[in-house]
Structures are given as structure tokens and as C-alpha cells.
Amino acid sequence: MTATATTSRSVLRQAISGQRRQVTLASVLAAGHQGGEALVPVIIGVVIDQAVAGGSVGTLLFWLAVLGVVFAGLSYSYRFAARAAEGASLRAAHDIRIAISRRVLHPGGGAENGKLAGELVNIGTSDAQRVGVVNAVLPFGIAALAGVLVSAVALLRMSVPLGLLVLLGTPPLLYVAHLIGKPLERRSEAEQERSAHASGVATDLVSGLRVLKGIGAEPAAVARYRDTSQNSLAATLRAARAKAWHDGAVLALTGIFIAIVALVGGHLASSGAISVGDLVAAVGLAQFLLTPFLIFSWVNGELAQGRASASRVADLLNTPPKVEAGDGELPLPATGDVRFTDVSYGSLRGVDLDIPAGQLVGVVATDPATATDLLDCLGRAGDPTGGEVRVDGVDLSTVDPERVREVVLVAAHDADLFEGTLAENVHAGGNAHDEALAASAADEVAAALPDGTATAVTERGRSLSGGQRQRVALARALAAQPPVLIVHDPTTAVDTVTEARIATGLARLRQGRTTILVTTSPALLAVTDRVVVLDGGRVSAEGVHAELARDRADYRAAVLS
Fold first, then answer.
1. Residue 235: inside a domain, yes or no?
2. How far apart are the first and last CA of the chain?
3. What distance in Å separates the CA atoms of residue 364 and residue 517, rounded to the nearest whole number?
């Protein structure tokens, strides 16, 4: 499902082929069930003609025993068919979720472009489930077709006109049902898109709830979600109306078709062309045919929704990576020499920067966008539009982004924690967790918590204060001990005393390893070997923090104001 030409059909095809054995088993069992259902009125007709009309008790008991065996088979086949179909549905949905997760988490990125986090979740849950449901309905669609064929054969044995009526009338009916399902498919896709957008907005608002309350923006947030939710509701209602129209139209067509079969059977019986038992069987088969045609209606509706969701899944899987893998290789072990040569990217304009291995360098960006663009280039979240970023002499744009991130770790300012204990969050970075806790002053955070490092941290670290989250996130980055570490504003939410301790601890722990601090904190800049100033997307000054603070008014304005 990661092919570049993934389509909605290929998503459906792979969902089915991945569970072919289960789908086949469910289809055989379900077909046996529907075939058995079709045989019931036929057997009853035989009982009337051979046992009741003939007055033979032995024949009656025999055919009643046959009916008992048929009903036992019906019960067994339906239960196990439903079980196999549901299993195939769940497994297919799981496989699709895995494929979506791999694409979203792909080191090359790009899947998140233009989509809120909630939208991606919606595609990975609701849409994946709808595609998986195709495996649950397909066996019953095949079974319904088997029921129609058995009924047609039985009717042909009674009367050729009756059998031909069913055989020749079914394909046009199915085609009309398919055409009726087209509006449902379109509106289902629109419904899923609006629903996903509403989920994304809700997730976005909840994640920023503290900020919204802090600035008193709750009314604006509520209004925004109300508009989004109303649009989603309107799309849902349109899809519901389309489904109701679809089901009603198919049911009406089915009813007319069955009535025609019953009328033709009654006419043949009245003319003596078929027996009374055949008439009872024909009427029973006509009534039975309602079931497979209702199944056709249900299957068609589910397939329409499945195709719509498969299209959304395919669009996500087809999203091109933001950065492509190359054939370049970083040396092992990496020393951490970093060099920018005439780099242009976003707000960066012809940046030249040389950071020898093992240096601790501060970067002061007067524009926050410049800092973000610098981090993107270093972590290969984006490739320069001009120039090169090299690590140990290797152009990063030629190296697989996953390999880049094994050597270069970018600790973003807004890094989130995950649900688990404080220790699990820090251990996720690497083995040097005790040293990292001390260097980041996160050991003070642990000491203040009821269970120390074993204290549970809620989703995204919301149970901690902003300063506590920053220190734990910094500890996680330090524990990884990468050859090149880039840290962006790691102390904006801590007090000055703690900030000074972090500056000292960070410099000590990272001694001999390349470290870039993108910050305006005087405490952090004071422990660096040198500071680089980026103004207007270009390098405007370089030097030691104390000298720059003494000699340059623009530097003092950016750092000390």
C-alpha cells in the first residue's frame, strides 16, 4: 500500500487479498447458508406434492428429517461465516492502519501537509474500518448471488419461464442498484472529509485549551468549532438522505421484481403448467429472494462507503515524502562536523556556517521563522532550495532521513512527552538517563513528584507544568547522546537559577560532542564556545557571547531585552 500509484481500487484489492483465505471461507459458508435457505421452500413444495398429496407418513417424516438437517446446516454455516467475515474485516482494517501509520511516521514526512492531526486519526480509524468492512460484506454478497442462482435453477426445473425471469432479471437489477449507489459514494466521501476536519479542529482546540483559556479566546474557539461541526452535520445528513434514498429505491425495485415472479408463478399454476407444490415453492422462493436482494442493497451501500474511504486512504498513502531518501552514507562513527554552504531555505538566505566537531555553538535568530527553517535543514525535515548542509563532509540531502536522525537529533521547542512514567519518557532517549536528568535539572522535577521518576505522566505531559515538561524533554534529548544535538529554546519556562544550572550541566554533559543551541537565553549563550547571529536570514555576526553583548547593540536588543 506504499506504492506511488495507489488507488482506491488497489486499496480495496489489497484489503481483500490480504485476507483471501478468511474471505474465501466466509464466502463458501455464507453461500452454503443462502443456498440452503433457497432449498427450504423447494423441499416444502416436494413435501406437499409427494407426502401430503400422496398421504404417505413415511415420506413426510423423511422430508421433515431432511428439513431438520438443512436447518442445522443453515445455523452452522451462518454463524461461522459471520465469524470468518468479521475476522477478515478486523484484520484488513488493522493492516490498513499499519500502512497509514507507516506513511505518517515515514522519516521523509509529507503526510501531515495540509491535514490536522485529528484528520489523520480519522483516516486511520474510521476510513480504515470502512475499507475493512468490505471483507465483511463481500462474502454475503457472493452468498446472495449463490442464493439467487439456486433459486433460478430450482425455478427452471419447475418452469423455464420462471427460471429465465430470475436469471435474466437479476443482472439489470444489480446494475441499477450500482448506479443508485453512486450519489451515496460521493456524499459518503464528503461526509468523511467534513467529519475528519471536525475531528482535527476539536483535537487542535483541546491541545491548546490552556492557551485559549489564558488569553480568553474560548468564545472564538467555540464559534470556530460550531461552524466546523455544523458543516460536518450537514454533510452527514446529506449522506444519510442519500443512503435512505438508495435503500428505499433498491427495496422498491426488489419488491416489484419479486411481485412479478409471484404473479408469473400464480399464472402458470392456474393454467396447470406447474403443480400446487411447485406454486408453493415458487411463492416461497419469491419471498426468499427478498433476502438476497436486501443483502445486495446492503452490500452495495457498504461498498459505496468503502470506495469513498479507500479513496481517502489512497490519497494519504500517495502523498509524496517531503524529502526523498538518497544513496549517501554518513561515516560511522560520526564525528559531528557541520557546515552550511550558501544555504537558502524558507527565510534562510545564502547562509555560510562552519561548526567544527565537538564545538558548543549558540545561534541567535532575530526571526522565529529563521530558527525553524534552520532546524528543518539540520534535521532534514526539508532540503535546501540552494546550497548544501554537510555533516562530516556528506551532503545531508543525499542521506536517508532516518539515518540522518540517528546522527543529528533536533530537540524542538514544542517537543511533547508521551503517556507513561517520567522514567520511561527519559529512557526513550537512550541509556544516559541519570546524567541527563541531572544536566537538565529534571532530577528536581522527579524529586517534587509523589513517586519520583516512576510518577505517571499524562498524555503530552499535561500533568506537568511547562517548565517541568521542558526539563524532561531536554533530559530525553540529552540521554540519546547523538553526535550532533540541536536544542531550540529549552529553558523559556524555567526560572533563572534553574536555567543557569541547566546551562552548566548541558555544557558539561555535551563536552566533546557537537551541540547547537538555538536560543536567546544569556545563560545558555554564556557557556557556548561562540555565538552566530542570524538576521534577515543571513549570518550578520559571530563571536563570543560576552564580546557580542558588549560591542553590538542589535545583539543586546535580541538577547538582553
1. yes
2. 53
3. 9
Give the span between the Cα atoms of 169 and 355, in whole angstroms.
78
| DSSP class per residue in 7-21 | -HHHHHHHHHHTTHH
- What burial class does residue 55 get, using C-beta atoms within 10 Å of its C-beta: 0-12 exposed, 13-18 middle, 19+ buried? exposed
Q: Do 408 and 441 belong together in one domain?
A: yes
pLDDT tens digit at each of 561 positions of the chain: 444 467 888 888 888 888 889 999 999 999 888 888 888 888 777 777 676 655 667 777 887 788 788 888 888 888 899 999 999 999 999 999 999 888 888 888 887 777 766 778 778 888 899 899 999 999 999 999 998 888 888 878 887 887 777 777 777 876 777 677 677 667 766 666 666 666 666 655 555 544 444 455 566 666 766 777 777 777 777 777 777 777 778 778 777 877 887 788 777 777 777 777 777 777 777 777 777 877 887 888 788 888 888 988 998 888 888 888 888 899 988 999 999 999 999 999 999 999 999 999 999 999 999 999 999 999 998 999 999 999 999 999 999 988 998 899 999 887 778 888 888 888 876 666 788 999 999 999 999 999 988 988 877 677 788 889 999 999 999 998 999 999 999 998 899 999 999 999 999 999 999 999 999 999 999 999 999 999 999 999 999 999 999 999 889 988 987
Full strand arrangement of the beta sheet holding 394-395: 348-355, 338-345, 386-391, 394-395
546 sits in which H/E element: helix 545-551
* Range(s) of the domain holding residue 315: 1-159+294-322
HEC letters along 470-512: HHHHHHHHHHCCCCEEEEECCCCCCCHHHHHHHHHHHHHHCCC
- Answer yes or no: do 397 and 460 share one domain: yes
Angle at 437 between CA 431 and CA 439, to 5 degrees: 110
Residues 203 and 66 in one domain: no
Q: Select from 366, 361, 362, 363 the least CA-distant residue to 347.
A: 366
Grid coordinates given for 374: 534552520
Beta strands at 348-355 and 338-345: parallel, antiparallel or unpaired: antiparallel
Grid cell 521547542 is found at: 413
